[in-house]
Design brief:
Largest sheet: 5 strands, antiparallel
Strand content: 15-25%
Low-confidence stretches: none
Shape: elongated
Number of domains: 1
Number of helices: 1
Distance between the termini: 84 Å
Bound molecules: calcium ion
Radius of gyration: 30 Å
Number of strands: 9
Oligomer: single chain
Length: about 325
């Protein structure tokens, strides 16, 4: 069939001009739209940065708490002091949350996940002497960092860091080695087994008195400070992972691989622009696994605040 002789196959000049004018209008409108989208995406990105940063840092803390055998800080509340050891809260700039001192510092500390083997050498990273057991023979300075409590950290929340000159005082309460590892709160400060002596069970014998700790057929052989009866003293200390604020930056301190001692660690900045960091050890005496409540607030550059809160059990309730 032949095409209709008057069928149009193109634009007239007028039609073309009109089309171009419409296209130009559309393009202008589109450009405005695209700009608006870009601006909106910028806003979203700022908010998401704060939220993303908070999520990342919170995940680091949650992983450390779930993997640990022991929540080190906050300590439990000590009924003998007039401040709360179990609630550590800090704002930037400093304020006095819930009536506490403006010297208040927030901190979360746990022992390194005993199953972690980052360098894949077949020994857990927290197994300092590579004998297959973790944290089994600490000195009276449990973290082997040559400081009262955790080096550079206000352990008991009294506003003082590493106070006193006594390295074996693991909880910075002014007494040394007053709470042996026996599942009891020997000194009545609310915390259990928080400041053990050289002989961690304080039973006057190597390892556990009357027990063949290393399974070599001999009971209580060697020196009483040798908690695992392997012939070496104080060779496997507690390896803490610590979260605290430096200015408005949240720091994660981790032991280096195969550390020489407890001062052999690296500090990583895991979040900036922190407005609030709060860690609470929830009192629940009936459970072995301690419940911890963590809040982290980060200020976005647009003035928006991202706030996250989580409540988990140390060791995941193992
Ligand atoms: Ca070991
Ligand atoms: Ca002490
Ligand atoms: Ca105690
Ligand atoms: Ca030993």
């Amino acid at each position: 069939m032949l095409a209709h002789p008057k069928a149009q196959v193109g634009f007239t000049l007028v039609e073309l001009l009109v089309s171009l004018a419409i296209a130009a209008l559309l393009l202008t409108a589109m450009t405005g739209l695209v700009n608006a989208v870009y601006e909106s995406r910028d806003d979203t990105r700022v908010q998401n940065d704060a939220t993303g940063d908070a999520r990342f840092a919170m995940q680091r803390m949650v992983t450390a708490v779930l993997g640990t055998d022991r929540l080190m800080l906050p300590l439990a509340d000590n009924p003998n002091t007039n401040w709360r050891e179990h609630l550590r809260e800090q704002t930037v700039p400093a304020s006095a949350p819930e009536g506490d001192s403006t010297l208040a510092t927030a901190v979360l500390a746990v022992t390194l996940d005993p199953s972690l083997d980052i360098d894949a050498d077949g020994f857990d990273d927290a197994d300092n002497d590579k004998d297959g057991r973790v944290d089994e023979d600490p000195a009276d300075d449990a973290t082997n960092d040559l400081a009262a409590g955790l080096a550079g950290i206000d352990d008991d929340g009294d506003g003082l860091v590493d106070e006193g000159s006594s390295i074996p005082d693991d909880d910075e309460d002014g007494s040394d080695d007053e709470d042996a590892v026996n599942g009891l709160d020997d000194d009545g400060d609310g915390s259990t087994d928080e400041d053990a002596p050289h002989d961690i069970e304080s039973d006057g014998q190597p390892g556990i008195a009357g027990f063949d700790d290393d399974g070599d057929g001999t009971v209580d052989e060697g020196h009483q400070h040798d908690d695992d009866e392997d012939g070496v003293r104080d060779e496997d200390w507690l390896d803490p992972v610590v979260f605290f604020l430096s200015g408005s930056t949240l720091i994660e301190r981790r032991p280096n691989l195969n550390p020489a001692d407890g001062t052999d660690y690296t500090e990583y900045a895991i979040a900036d622009n922190v407005a609030r960091f709060r860690v609470e050890r929830i009192p629940d005496t009936g459970k072995r696994a301690v419940l911890v409540d963590i809040t982290l607030e980060i200020q976005g550059s647009d003035g928006q605040t991202a706030s996250l809160n989580t409540r988990i059990r140390a060791g995941g309730g193992r």
